[in-house]
Amino acid sequence: MSQYIRAWEALSPKIWEAGGMNGGEIYQALEESGIHLFENREHNFLDWAVDVMGLVDYDEKQNIYFPKIQGEYDTGFVWEPFPNGIKSPAQFVVFRDKLNAWREGAKKISHKRARALLYRMPLERDFSVMGPQYLGAVAHYLKCQECRSLGLAKIRQTGGLKHKNALLIWAKNGSYLPKEKPRNLFEVYAVEHVLACKAMPCSTLKSYWDNYIRKGLEKHEDEAKIHLYPVLIGIFMRAKWQTGELFSLQRERIKALLKDLKEHQRGEVIAQLDTLQSVAKLPRVLPLPERKPKKPEEPKKPKVDLLAEATGGKLHWNDKGMDDWEKGWQPFTRGTRVEVRVQEDTLPPYGRWLKGTVAEEFLDSERAIVVKCDERWHEDMRNYRGHGATIMVMHNTRRGILARIRKIEGE
Question: Of 63, 138, 157, 233, whose CB is crowded by the most CB atoms within 10 A?
Fold first, then answer.
């Protein structure tokens, strides 16, 4: 029994990463890990894992053993990251139950709820340590075409990643993230940035990877990984970015490759060494860019009390209670006639006020008040065919809400 437990600890991360193995591949993986089993017809490792412990299932049509997560072998199943700390069968069962809860939660969660959770989810936190609600939102987003079309940057109302940071995340993972297993929201941000960005650094990396996909090779990702760092170093040099972080990641990658060398990995090590040798011949310090003369500072424009302007002087920006978090939205229930400020400006009249009717109140969307304006003012047909205006309530203050929306008396 103890030898089977040691065998499972060695096999579990490998069969999880592969998504499934046949019997020959399983025993070959155990041999490579230094596990030598003594078995007979009455006692063997696969029967113990399938029938006794219920750790894996067997699909007769595909002749595949796979971790017992779904009911049958599914080639389209997205295998989530396997945490390093899970080794024993008991730990695996706990993680499996948690993942099942994650997948079930993803089926029930709505678009609005998933986006609200993604909005406040920590970017760097590993998915494997999150609770079922957050995990359900992540699973929903990764599989929902409607949410993916919006993108994380729009859902979280941020400007996205910088080119350099996105490429460093690709370097750290060494893989094409949409077909791999993102571990946190930063990795999802990185792939969305690179796929959509037209700038030289990102478009160069995307073209390099797409070239291997077009070749139709069975293991194109392994082939593309071989020259990934040389390509990234060339991009960093042309963009005149500092290479310290990239070189640190490259050293870690080489250390990992030396532990268990395979054919394609040996080719990658050679490419890494060739790159380091060519870099050693370059000057150690890149020339500094020419300094442009500073433009004279423009006089600062006077600050405007937008709250007083919106309320006709009844309320002011620094009044008591205006810092209250997520307050002031209660009067604007569904059906209320209002005016909303759009296209804000720092000069009079400080934006444009449009009349409309509240279509979604804060309790509907869990994030904002949505107004359907009487006239069309933008081109987004998904937002009430160009008539929608959104006033954020989540993470906003009373002054921030009341400065952008006001009731129309008498209507």
Answer: 138
With beta carbons less than 8 A apart as the criterion, state whether 21 and 15 touch: yes
Tell me the per-residue pLDDT of 191-202, one tens digit each, with 9 for 90 and over. Answer: 888 888 889 988
Tell me if 50 sits within 8 A of 101, measured CB to CB. Answer: no
Task: Flag whether the pTM goes above 0.70.
Answer: no
Please check whether residue 185 is in contact with residue 118, taking contact to mean a CB–CB distance below 8 angstroms.
Answer: yes
* pLDDT single digits (tens) 125-166: 887 777 777 877 887 887 788 888 888 888 887 766 788 988
C-alpha to C-alpha distances, 20 to 101, 124, 249, nearest whole angstrom:
21, 29, 30
In single-letter form, the type of residue at position 317 comes to W
Residue 160 φ/ψ region, left for φ over 0, alpha for ψ in the -120 to 50 degree band, beta for the rest: left
The alpha carbons of the chain give a radius of gyration, in whole angstroms, of 28
Task: Tell me the residue type at 400.
Answer: G
Among 60, 58, 51, 2, which residue's Cα sits nearest to residue 26? Answer: 58
- For the chain, the domains span 2-77, 306-407
- Determine the Cα–Cα distance for residues 204 and 366; give it in Å rounded to an integer: 40
